[in-house]
Amino acid sequence: MKICVIGLGYIGLPTACMFADHGNYVIGVDKNPAVIEALSRGEVIIEENGLPELVKKVVSEGKLVAKSEPEEADVFIISVPTPITEDKHSDMKYVEAATEGLLPYVKKGDLVILESTSPVGTVDTLMVPILEKSGMKAGVDFYVGHSPERVIPGQILNELVNNNRIAGGLTPECARKISDLYKCFVKGEIYETDARTAELCKLSENTFRDINIAFANELAKICERLNINVWEVIRLCNKHPRVNIHQPGPGVGGHCIAVDPWFIVEKEPTLANMIHLARTTNDSMPTHVADRIASILEGVEDPKVTILGVTYKPDVDDMRESPLIHLEEILRNRGVRVAAYDPFVIGKPGITNDLEEAAKDSDLLLLGVHHHQFKTLDFEALGKLMRRKNFFDTRNFVDMEPAMNAGFSCTLLGKN
Ligand SMILES: NC(=O)c1ccc[n+]([C@@H]2O[C@H](COP(=O)([O-])OP(=O)(O)OC[C@H]3O[C@@H](n4cnc5c(N)ncnc54)[C@H](O)[C@@H]3O)[C@@H](O)[C@H]2O)c1
């Protein structure tokens, strides 16, 4: 089978490699010349466990070839970005351009699959009209559908194989063709459905998690008022066999959970009330944390806060949509000096890899992300560098005893 994968990022490149490593000839297409140049040398510009080795293998065997334009193939897979705009609407220009780009090459019997996370109706109302400009009829002359991706960065190669997958076709025959294709490497179940259902499934999965986190964040605020420890409440609730409350925190980041629910809200703004409220609840957390910092530092002149960890999740360098970046902005707008320290983020302006420099003359250390290094913070040494010894843990990650022994006044999110 000849497969053309459009967009070679975190999703497209591992997918292209998997197909190439399982008996297919794959053309990988990307608009970014740096991606194509690296790939032509058998190298990658993104970080993912096991990917450099796999790329080297399939490129050297001639099974994956990088190009800047598509070409004729049996299958086309689109895995381009689907970001949101400033006003929280889906920006579909990459999917639109990628689909337009296929028009000269799609022929009778071909299969076109959208992998990008997309609003409901993208396949049937955006892609099909473009592809039918070829004069062919979707579902009759060629096949089209959506098969969303559920992988987690760091585990992509493993999850591509082992996760269950949804194959959403414009018609049942389209779904069956998609399912048959992925069977060459997927060991999980593949569930066939229609394209619109598949689109909403992907969005609903991340929205479920967003709502659960919003519930935890709301509980955190309530516990602060009621003088109860939210982490203890959640720990004990989760002993119930049918309860699984997620963890509160300083907000939700990343390019999935913080983005996908808006695709549902934009489609049905009058109905998606809980989804919208969850998004705004999670987005309110940086302000909530800033308010708590303000009360800790009340009366302090020219205050300085040190943020420990600015990524959206632990032990990675990914800062996309990070709530800690929003927190930093809020604090600066309130006249607070901020030092942002992160051991994973290298070479980014405004973020230091020098913890001592970040802590110097600071009035408060705020744990933003639970990077493993923060488990063993040397509070004795840090306290000596600081102007005031305040510590605020937004993740319930650090043992407070050493901090208190070193004279720190300690605060925990979700506890008064
Ligand atoms: N990264 C994840 O963990 C993840 C998980 C599930 C779903 N998704 C979804 O998968 C899609 C892709 O995400 P990603 O993380 O791989 O994005 P990415 O930014 O890592 O990669 C996208 C690539 O597409 C290229 N591109 C853009 N327009 C193009 C065009 N017209 N032709 C050819 N190449 C083009 C870009 O240059 C880039 O290399 C998004 O919809 C995302 O929401 C991502």
Describe this structure in words.
There is one protein chain. With 416 residues, this protein is of the alpha/beta class. The chain folds into 2 domains: 2-195, NAD(P)-binding Rossmann-like Domain (Rossmann fold, 3-Layer(aba) Sandwich); 225-416, Rossmann fold (3-Layer(aba) Sandwich), CATH 3.40.50.720. The chain contains 16 helices and 14 strands. It has helices at 12-20, 33-40, 51-60, 93-102, 122-131, 156-162, 172-182, 195-226, 230-237, 260-267, 273-283, 285-296, 323-333, 355-359, 379-385, 400-405, and strands at 2-6, 25-29, 64-67, 75-78, 111-114, 143-146, 165-169, 190-194, 304-308, 337-341, 351-352, 364-367, 390-393, 409-412. Strands 3-2-1-4-5-6-7-8 form an 8-stranded mixed β-sheet, with helices on both faces. It has a 6-stranded parallel β-sheet with strand order 11-10-9-12-13-14. Helix 1 packs across helix 3 (51-60) and helix 12 packs across helix 13. It is elongated and about 75 Å long. The N and C termini lie far apart (61 Å). The model has no long low-confidence stretch (mean pLDDT 97). The protein binds nicotinamide-adenine-dinucleotide. Nicotinamide-adenine-dinucleotide (NAD) binds at residues 6-12, 29-32, 35, 79-82, 94, 97-98, 101, 115-117, 149, 151, 153, 255-256.
